[in-house]
Each structure stands twice: as C-alpha cells, then as structure tokens.
Amino acid sequence: EAQVTQNPRYLITVTGKKLTVTCSQNMNHEYMSWYRQDPGLGLRQIYYSMNVEVTDKGDVPEGYKVSRKEKRNFPLILESPSPNQTSLYFCASSFRVGGAPRNEQFFGPGTRLTVL
Amino acid sequence: AQSVAQPEDQVNVAEGNPLTVKCTYSVSGNPYLFWYVQYPNRGLQFLLKYITGDNLVKGSYGFEAEFNKSQTSFHLKKPSALVSDSALYFCAVGESGTYKYIFGTGTRLKVLA
User: Fold this and answer.
1) Low-confidence ranges of chain B (pLDDT < 50)
2) A71 touches chain B (CB under 8 A)
3) How far is Cα of residue A3 from the mean position of the Cα atoms in its chain?
4) How many CB atoms lie within 10 A of CB A109?
5) What is the per-residue pLDDT across A12-63, written as a single tens digit (0 to 9) for each?
6) In B20, B23, B52, B80, which residue has its Cα 20 to 30 A from B37's Cα atom?
7) Chain A residues within 8 A of B104 when measuring between CB atoms
C-alpha cells in the first residue's frame, strides 16, 4: 500500500530534550516536506526537500532541522524543543515534475507533539 | 509574496443542498492551486488541483472547483452535500520559482442532516 508513515504518532516531552520525528514514504517520491498545523493558522511549511541531500526552508524553519540522506526518509529534528513548538506535525511527499510545484502531496497521519 | 485566503472559518449547509467553500489567492506567475480535505484525526487527502486548462476542475467524491483568473479565486463546490462531507477543507497554492506550498487557514464544513 502506498503510504507516508510517521513515528511517533504522539509525543509528550520537556523543554530542551532533543527529539526526532521520523517520516518515510514508499512511493519513490523525490519531494518531501514537513508542516505544522495550529488552530487558526492552518498548515505552515517548515522545511522541504526536492531530492536526496537537497533541502530548503519553508515559512517557519526556526528551531527545526532536517536531513535527507535517503530518498524514502525525511526526519524532522528538534534540537532543543520549546513549548511554542507544541503542535500537530505532518509529513508529505509527492513526485517532482519539472521546475514547478504542480503535484499533489500525500500526507502522513500526523504527529501530535506536546512540549512541557 | 504569494498567499492564499479562506475567508470563512466555518460553512454550514443542509444535506442535499449545494455547497461552496471559498478560496482566493495571490501569486506571481502561473497559479498551481489545490484543495485538500482533513477528516478528524487524519492526515490531509488530496481532492483536486488546477494547473492549466479548463476552468472547471473535477475531483474526488463529487467535488469540483472553479478557477477564476480575473477574481483570483478557486472556490470548491459540490452540487449536493452529504453529512459525510463534514470535515476541514484547505486550499493551497504552489509557489512558482520555489518549491514551497502555501496553505490557507482552513474552512470547517458542517453538513446538517
């Protein structure tokens, strides 16, 4: 089954304790991305990757890191989480055709993170 | 900067009536427009997109969207709403020149039996 998986689905942690949220897709997509969803703010893009070893900042990258060492995986790293990073996080992937963002994304089930 | 606006936080419609969820956009260059739906405790699911061509785009579950270049709008429509259509709907635009996607704030659709 074609899918995007995220782990963990739920996480409660404390300020400053480094954490990683994993994301994996089995559709051979070049493009992967991380979003956070907050009430009243919709989805905001954190980072995206157009292929292995190619990443770029979205609209809200502060406090986050990413890496893309393999095509299927795109982990999100919070080196020193803070309470304002409490949110619902989604990973997404899509094919990349040409030089324009014209493809629909497939989303993972989400990771609900609480930072105390 | 490119942007997407969904002016309504919530839309209520009676089952069987037509529904419209509004979206306006601001882009430089060609607009790549998308609609997604989110059911409770689920990720987003793709409904439809406009890249080029016909202004009326048909998508999943009987939804369609009308692209209007002069009004910079991309409203989501369905001729006859179902209670099961109740969900959170997001409009999004792909930012040309980068590979960023910009989402609206979402519109909660409530279909009343």
Assistant:
1) none
2) no
3) 15
4) 15
5) 999 999 999 999 999 999 999 999 999 999 999 999 999 999 999 999 999 9
6) B52
7) 42
Which are the contacts of A105, defined by CB distance < 8 A and separation ≥ 6? A31, A33, A92, A93, A94, B44, B46, B101
Task: Nearest by CB to B32, from A41, A50, A102: name it.
Answer: A102
Closest chain B CA to residue A38: B105
The Cα–Cα gap between B77 and B30 comes to 22
Q: Which residues of A touch B102 (CB under 8 A)?
A: 45, 59
Measured at the CA of B110, the angle between CA B2 and CA B83, to 5 degrees, comes to 125
Question: Looking at beta carbons, which residues of chain B come within 8 Å of A107?
Answer: 36, 43-45
Cβ neighbourhood burial of A52 (10 Å; 0-12, 13-18, 19+): middle
**Per-residue pLDDT tens digits for A98-114:** 667 888 999 999 999 99
Per-residue pLDDT reduced to its tens digit, B53-82: 889 999 999 999 999 999 999 999 999 999
**Chain A residues whose beta carbon lies within 8 Å of the beta carbon of residue B46:** 104-106
* Those residues with Cβ within 8 angstroms of residue A84's Cβ, 6 or more apart along the chain or in another chain: A115
Q: What are phi and psi of B48, to 5 degrees?
A: -170, 165
> Residues B32, B93: contact at Cβ < 8 Å?
yes
Query: Between B6, B44, B104, which is nearest A107 by CB?
Result: B44
Cβ-nearest to B46 among A33, A56, A105 = A105
